């Protein structure tokens, strides 16, 4: 979504870093470029004007220009201002003591309300709630059927009522929730192609009948600057509490998303990237600001890894992985864990500079699947002991997988590289913990032992990007979880 804006801003900051000292003229030139980048991204012009003015005033302070690292200070100022523009702090919806709680979704037709309702219900179900989806859109053809299909897929109850009166359906859903022991009602309301009186009046009637704890507006992130007027209209009529930003994985410029909080004062609560039920995520302004500036979002990656790390690892297996004794069964485990985190592309995008490294092309997400086809053609002994794979065995495996022998050879080569990298990572980690023994120099003086840094990551999606083996995906030694979270936590420092 913010790829073009991110690339523009990163190029601006690269030019600033190349200068040892900054002058007022340098700051003025950088701010002009930032203004153009934001306007090209379709950010509201009033928001751009205030953003640039505030950033420039802080960047021209003597403490910044006369510091040892003025460029870094200016970048920090822009990061802070961008975070403030997006909302400063994450806002979370609070549940009331009333059972059931009622949440109402509003927005234009095509914004993704129905899908967002299902994703929201899925997320809250994982948190221990028992949601009831309510099909209050009686106008759009098959709207109720779509919601019901999503409910079946996610094992979530759906209430359709009489299918004629939206206000009556919403009111009856509260009693249905009590009868079915549901503690939360999520009402999917009807939308229109544009703001009109009929839609607003109906939304107000449902609000008054149900008295929801929270009203959430679903906004299509690809709408552009026009989104501001739509959000303002809904804010005046139904006074919603926050925004769900859908289709954030689209290829639009994304300026509307940056304008909502500044223009309306309404926070962005959730964002949705992709079609999977798990693609709805809480919105953190500081993390989004870091992503836009190309600084990655390792924190979210770690949190997602912690949520998905459910694989039990036996103590003996953990010790084997710690010694980098990798086998092909581990390849399958790694693929499963990477898929749970959204794929290789999502992992790389979360790293500093990852978005820019991927801008020239896409990660081949099917590469691991093709590897698994080859691995499935091996015997259990061959998967556990890759050293057995001689020429005849490789030919048999290739025939069983329907590939050339060269593909099997390539897989074995990648396995060896991954095992070697894992061994280097483990060795580097040990050197960080242990200091070298004191040794005598040429003049007989003892030198204090220095800590050894982790080896530099190499390969991957571009300069400074890691191989998969350096992403900490090989297992967490000594306990639960299929991911080495401590390895992920070091990524941000490794790529600064």
Mind explaining what this structure looks like?
The protein is of the alpha/beta class and 496 residues long. The chain has three domains: 84 residues, Four Helix Bundle (Hemerythrin (Met), subunit A) (Up-down Bundle); 188 residues, P-loop containing nucleotide triphosphate hydrolases (Rossmann fold), CATH 3.40.50.300; 179 residues, Orthogonal Bundle (434 Repressor (Amino-terminal Domain)). It contains 23 helices and ten strands. The protein has an eight-stranded mixed beta sheet, with helices on both faces. A hairpin with a 7-residue loop joins strand 7 and strand 8. It is flat, with a radius of gyration of 27 Å. The C terminus is likely disordered.
């Amino acid at each position: 979504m913010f790829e073009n804006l991110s690339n523009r801003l990163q190029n601006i900051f690269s030019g600033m870093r190349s200068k040892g000292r900054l002058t007022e003229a340098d700051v003025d030139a950088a701010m002009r470029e930032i203004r153009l980048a934001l306007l090209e991204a379709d950010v509201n012009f009033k928001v751009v004007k205030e953003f640039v003015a505030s950033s420039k005033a802080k960047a021209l302070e003597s403490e910044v220009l006369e510091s040892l690292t003025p460029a870094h200070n200016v970048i920090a100022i822009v990061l802070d201002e961008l975070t403030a523009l997006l909302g400063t702090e994450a806002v979370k919806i609070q549940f009331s003591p009333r059972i059931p709680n009622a949440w109402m979704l509003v927005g234009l037709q095509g914004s993704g309300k129905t899908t967002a309702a299902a994703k929201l219900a899925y997320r809250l179900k994982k948190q221990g709630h028992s949601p009831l989806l309510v099909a209050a859109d009686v106008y759009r053809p098959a709207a109720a059927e779509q919601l019901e299909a999503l409910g079946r897929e996610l094992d979530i109850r759906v209430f359709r009522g009489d299918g004629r009166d939206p206000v009556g359906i919403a009111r009856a859903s509260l009693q249905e929730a009590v009868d079915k022991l549901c503690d939360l009602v999520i009402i999917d309301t009807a939308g229109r192609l544009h703001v009109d009186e009929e839609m607003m009046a109906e939304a107000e009637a449902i609000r008054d009948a149900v008295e929801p704890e929270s009203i959430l507006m679903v906004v299509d992130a690809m709408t552009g600057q026009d989104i501001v007027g739509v959000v303002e209209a809904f804010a005046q009529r139904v006074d919603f509490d926050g925004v769900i930003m859908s289709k954030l994985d689209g290829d639009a410029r994304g300026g509307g998303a940056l304008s909502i909080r500044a223009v309306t004062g309404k926070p962005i609560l959730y964002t949705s990237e992709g079609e999977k039920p798990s693609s709805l995520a809480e919105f953190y302004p500081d993390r989004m600001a870091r992503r836009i500036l190309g600084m990655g979002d390792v924190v979210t990656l770690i949190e997602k890894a912690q949520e998905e790390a459910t694989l039990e690892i036996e103590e003996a297996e953990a010790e084997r992985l710690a010694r980098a004794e990798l086998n092909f069964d581990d390849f399958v485990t790694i693929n499963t864990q990477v898929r749970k985190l959204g794929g290789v592309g999502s992992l790389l995008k979360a790293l500093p500079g990852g978005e820019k490294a991927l801008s020239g092309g896409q990660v081949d997400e099917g590469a691991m699947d093709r590897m698994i086809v080859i691995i499935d053609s091996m015997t259990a002994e061959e998967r556990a002991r890759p050293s057995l794979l001689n020429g005849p065995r490789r030919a048999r495996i290739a025939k069983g997988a329907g590939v050339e022998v060269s593909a099997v050879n390539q897989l074995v080569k990648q396995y060896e590289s991954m095992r070697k990298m894992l061994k280097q990572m483990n060795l580097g980690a040990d050197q960080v913990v242990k200091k070298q023994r004191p040794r005598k120099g040429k003049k007989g003086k003892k030198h204090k032992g220095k800590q050894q840094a982790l080896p530099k990551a190499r390969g991957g999606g571009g300069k400074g990007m890691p191989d998969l083996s350096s992403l900490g995906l090989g297992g967490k030694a000594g306990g639960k979880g299929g991911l080495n979270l401590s390895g992920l936590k070091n990524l941000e420092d490794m790529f600064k």
